[in-house]
Design a protein that fits this description.
The chain has 193 residues and is an alpha/beta fold. It has helices at 10-17, 45-60, 94-104, 168-174, 176-190, and strands at residues 2-5, 25-28, 64-73, 80-81, 112-123, 126-138, 154-156. It contains five helices and seven strands, in the order βαβαββαβββαα. It binds inosinic acid.
Length: 193
């Protein structure tokens, strides 16, 4: 079975291609020749994930999945959450987002945080969603150069190093995205078309 992963994020593709699965082959947007920036206009990860998979399903009429991820920080009431990519404002980069996060947490008594991923699958015209959560905390300073996004400031429960100090196999032992995608893989392995 051929399935499209609706993302332009090379790090996400690499993480997911590392997971073992049977029965289907994952193609990226680039591999199927689609070059669009899919909007993320909604207030929830769930709605943004649906937007991405539905946009590509309408274009291709093929099985497609997408994912949307947010970093939810307890002391910030769940922020940056769905706005994680634009936390420091439109047009700012990831370093600006991390700087803002560390500044906001400077005097906070708890640094507990979690990554939450929502996967949206559209297959046979129907949508299915899967969620993956990774609990952890935000460090006092950046550490490590692997991975992407907030990886240099996030340590998952069960480890004492940041995601940015792990290789993909190690990150996938903890990762929110891995947990959500594993459910997707289990679902597809059982799926009868
Ligand atoms: P999106 O799912 O691509 O919209 O990601 C939202 C924000 O969270 C972006 O700033 C990403 O860089 C960041 N992000 C998503 N997944 C991860 C992850 O696994 N580690 C660190 N940051 C992430």
């Amino acid at each position: 079975m051929k399935i499209i992963f609706a993302t332009n994020n090379k790090n996400k593709v690499e993480e997911i291609k590392h997971l073992s699965h049977q029965k289907f082959e994952i193609f990226t947007l680039q591999e199927v020749g689609i070059d669009i920036d899919i909007p993320e206009p909604h207030d929830t990860l769930e709605a943004n994930a649906t937007e991405k998979s539905a946009t590509i399903y309408k274009l291709t009429n093929q099985a497609v999945f997408s994912e949307d991820t947010g970093l939810e920080v307890e002391a910030l009431g769940g922020a940056p959450g769905v706005k994680s990519a634009r936390y420091a404002g439109e047009g700012r980069n990831m370093q600006d987002n991390i700087d803002k996060l560390l500044a906001e947490l400077k005097d906070k008594p708890t640094r507990a945080a979690r990554f939450r991923t929502v996967v949206s699958l559209i297959i046979g015209g129907k949508e299915f969603q899967f969620e993956g959560i990774c609990e952890g905390h935000i460090t006092n300073a950046q550490d490590g150069t692997n991975g992407f996004g907030y990886d240099p400031v996030f340590i998952p429960v069960g480890s004492d190093i940041t995601f940015a100090n792990m290789d993909i196999t190690e990150k996938n032992k903890f990762s929110h995205r891995k947990k959500a995608v594993q459910q997707l893989i289990n679902f597809l392995n059982d799926y009868q078309d």
